[in-house]
Every structure is written in structure tokens, then in C-alpha cells.
Amino acid sequence: MSLPNIVSKEQIQNQYTYIDGVAELIRGKQLRAYTHTFGCQQNEADTERIRGMLHEMGYEMTDSAEDADFILFNTCAVREHAEERAFGNIGALSHLKKRRPDLIIALCGCMAQQDKNVQKIKKSYPQVTLLFGTHALWRFPSLLYRTMTEKKRIFDIGGDENGEIAEGLPVMRENGAKAWLSIMYGCNNFCTYCIVPYVRGRERSRRPEEIESELRDLISAGYKDITLLGQNVNSYGKDLELDIDFADLLRRLNAVEGDFLIRFMTSHPKDAGPRLFDAMADCSKVAKQLHLPFQSGSDEILERMNRRYTAADYRKLITYARGKMPNLTLSSDIIVGFPGETEADFQQTLALVQEIQFDLLFTFLYSKRSGTPAAEYEDNATPAEKQNRFERLLRAQDEIVAKRQDAYQGKCMRLLVDGGARGTEYPYTARTEGNLLVCVRGDDIRIGTFIEAEIEKTSLRCLFARKR
Ligand code: 5AD
Ligand code: SF4
Questions:
Q1: Does the C-beta of 249 come closer than 6 Å to ligand 2?
Q2: Could you tell me if the CB of 187 is within 6 A of ligand 2?
Q3: Of 27, 130, 272, 314, which has the fewest CB atoms closer than 10 Å, so is most exposed?
Q4: CATH classification of 178-377, choosing from 2.60.120.40, 3.90.25.10, 3.80.30.20, 1.20.1440.230?
């Protein structure tokens, strides 16, 4: 076991010196920063860190790239589509850069950690003046300072390729009820389709006292809906010298005083089990919500995905979890069209979906990622066949959701109001404990509070409720 590599206090302090340095350079100029995030919640949490640093430097945040003096794209490499969108967005900025040569356009995130993309940006996207990978995120202040003072393009994808943990940097979160709380970084699983382990390094866990202290700060600041983040939260603690696992962490955080909900994502079926589900059931502040991606219902495909469980294992897990938590809200990820997937394999995925009856599914068409093992696998199904499977899966799930939504009709539920107000009949948005979206109406509704509400009607994507 090797302990996670922690960025030293001196190095963090040094970054604060650069924050002051940039602040000095832009003082009195009233500069504005715009950020755009692609991809997952981990990326959103990373962007909040960068916004925190920008805020400390004295930047105002803006929602318009046209108005901004600093533009950042935090990118995702999980599927080709996300990459294409990022390149498209950056391409569209060349006119802004021509008009305003002082504009700084920065690119970070998973795409920026890959050499092939770095070369492409170097060569064909001269408007990008700063690029840094996931391992260099904590060095953003020094990189921005260099971009400003050295007047040249700065590229930094270096750092410990296993990844590090940087504590004590600023963060600027969205206002409202929800907050992300990273508990670990990286992934060790190497599912054969997935690029994440190559761009985010090895699993490394933050220390429990750091996590608890951040949770306490969030609760004091009024956040009520906290999602613990990690690529595979179920392996939390394996890399620490402490005797703690994810179930223990949940119990520890549940003991923090206050009225709030804890969620977590993402879980891996090979590491989730009774210890976790018992802890969830025991802890009143842990939402009875589980996102447990199964990816495919075919054991052969699961094996070639290197997922290390079978469909039967998955069924057993769900039976146990639902036995402990009858109202559990359950969601999953599925990949359709993995190389070699036959119609018979797909039928097994469909059967599992029909059997388990998920509340929510995230379905993806397989996207080839160069550098991953699956990119070399033989792939015989045509795009049309894959698309057809994908659509059948969506239709099957829509039918399931319609039935599940009907069952909510007339029910009274505790909701957390998290957004609004939009001048419609149901002006506020809220979430059930299971994180289902609800549009709400009624008197005296305030964002960030828990309310009791009765479900009046439903649609495929949303429940509609009146506050009691
Ligand atoms: N193609 C399609 N979907 C993918 N995912 C990860 N890699 C790929 C890929 N190459 C999906 C998985 C994962 C989710 C976050 O993204 O379903 O659980
Ligand atoms: Fe990718 Fe698998 Fe790790 Fe999830 S668990 S990030 S799918 S390698």
C-alpha cells in the first residue's frame, strides 16, 4: 500500500502567492471570467475550485463568453461526442481572440490530459493560450500568472501521473441547496472501454477529517443536499493507513449535526455490498438513493468490459439493497453496442432492465476511446443495429418510468426545494429524497428548505406537487 501523494502545505501556500500575483496584475481592471464545464460531477467540482481561485484573484464571474476576459473550458474525454463539442466551442472562439488579443482562453480537464489532444490544440487552435491537465489543476494560479507575464502559450500536463491530493485551495460553489464534496479522486478499475483511469490517475482518498470538516463548513453555509463524489466511492479508504471504508465514512458523516441529506456517486457493483447497504439503511441523513451502473446484462460482455461481476451478482445486490431499503430510488448506466455485443447479449441487458425496474437510466452508445483495450476489440454490429438497440432500450425504460411515475400520484412526500422561480404554474423545482425532479407550487416556498408536498400529476421526466 502506498499512501496518497499529498501536495505540501508550502506548495499550496506558493499558489496563494500567485493568486496575489495575478490579483496585482489585474487590479482596477474589472476583469470578468467565464467557465463552461463538460462531463461529470467531478468536473463540475473541479470548475468550482478554479472559480474559487479566479474569485480570489479579483475576477467577476460572467455568464457570457462574449463579455469575458478569461474563458475556461473544463473538458470531458469519456465519449467522442463530448470531445467534438469542446473542439467546436473552442473553434467558435477564434473571432473573439482576434478582436481582443488580450483574451485568455484556457482548456483543462480530461481531454487536456491526453497528448493527442494537446498536439491538436498546439497546432490547430492557436486561440488557446493556456492548457493544463487534471494533475495540474492545483497549479492553476501559477500557470495563469505565467500566461500573463511571459506572454506566451503555456501547456502543463505534467505532474505525478498517479495523481495527487491538494487540500486548502479556495472553492466557489453555486448558491442553493446542493453541493459537491469530493471524497476521492482517480480510478483503478480499468474497465476496458473507459478512458478515465488514464486521465485521472490512481484512486486516492482524502482523509476523513478533511472530508468531515468540509461537510461541516457546507452545512454551516446552508447547503442541505451534499453529494459525495468519487469515480468509485466504494473503494474509499483502501489507500489510507486508517481502518476506514466507505460505510464507516457514511456513518461518521451521518453523525454531523444538522438537517441535511447525503448522497454519493458513483458506486461499483464489485465493491458495493451488505456493509454499504446496512450503513445506508441505518443512517437517517443518507438518502435512500443508489446509482449503481451495471453497463450490460450479458456476463460475456461484462467479462470483456473487465467489470468483475456477473448479472446474477448484480441481481443479488439489488435484492439485498431493496430488502433493507424498500423505498430505494435506483439508477444505473448502460452501454449499448460494446464491441462484440450480439442481439442475444442485448436481450440480456433488456431483460435486466425489465426485471429491476430502475427509476432512472443513463444509456450510452459505446464510443471508441483510443488507448483503451476495447478500442482494439473486433466490432461487428453496424451503427444502425446499435442505434436500433439503443432506441429499443429507451422505449422500454420510458414505459417503466411512466408506470413508476403513476404510482406517485396522490402521494405525500418530503422534498428539498432547490430552484425556481420561473413564472410557470409550478414555479419551483425540488428533489425527492431519491433525487427525482419535482416541480412545485404553493405559498411561502423558499429555496433550500424541506417541505411536505402532495404529488398532483406526473410526466415522464418530472413529478408535479403542491406544498401542503
Ligand atoms: N462509451 C460509452 N459510454 C461510456 N462510459 C464510459 N466510457 C464510455 C465509452 N467509451 C459510460 C459508462 C459510465 C458512464 C459515466 O459513462 O456507462 O458508467
Ligand atoms: Fe471508468 Fe470503470 Fe473507473 Fe467508472 S469504474 S471511471 S467506468 S474505469
A1: no
A2: yes
A3: 27
A4: 3.80.30.20
